[in-house]
Design brief:
The chain is mainly alpha-helical and 190 residues long. It has a domain of 127 residues: Arc Repressor Mutant, subunit A (Orthogonal Bundle). It is built from six helices and three strands. A three-stranded antiparallel β-sheet has the order 1-3-2. The longest helix is centred in the middle third of the chain and has 27 residues.
Amino acid sequence: MTTPIDQQERIRTWFHPLRIKIVELLRARGSMTQTELARAIDANTASARYHLLRLVRAGFVEHAGTRPGPKAITEKLFRHIQQEPTMEPLTFATKHGTAQDREMRRLSLDSVTEIHRVGARIIQREPQRFFGIHTQEITATPEKLRALRDALKATLAGFIAGLEAPGEDEKIERATVCINFYPHSAPAET
């Protein structure tokens, strides 16, 4: 068991798109080496190692032994740790304007930046795969913007629920759908 770290550090560790991908891969495929993970997340091995060590420290991933690798090198394996019921859960509901709220928003923007970085690399290598980005500026009351956000969230959830699972012989592709609301001005003083 790793040394416990505080809730803020666990949130900062988890809320990174590459780390989330690493944990998803380890859950789905089982134990993997940092080289295998680096290839799977389209990163260099040093970056994969850094993120793996952060996940190990936070208690999301652990060492899973070794295996013989190429050129008589011993490779370390990593696996996902099933979270213990006694472990403090990650909570993302925070009071608006608090330091934790600001940190969560910053981390969310970092996640969007990483999505765009990976998308830009795909565009360069395989432009036919790029689906596109559409930006629309909207002017409305805060209540109307919240209603729009909720309606888009419900529409997307309904669409995803209606998708059929691909068959074993079908080619599949993953995509990130990102709907963001970025204010252009500070809220009016009351």
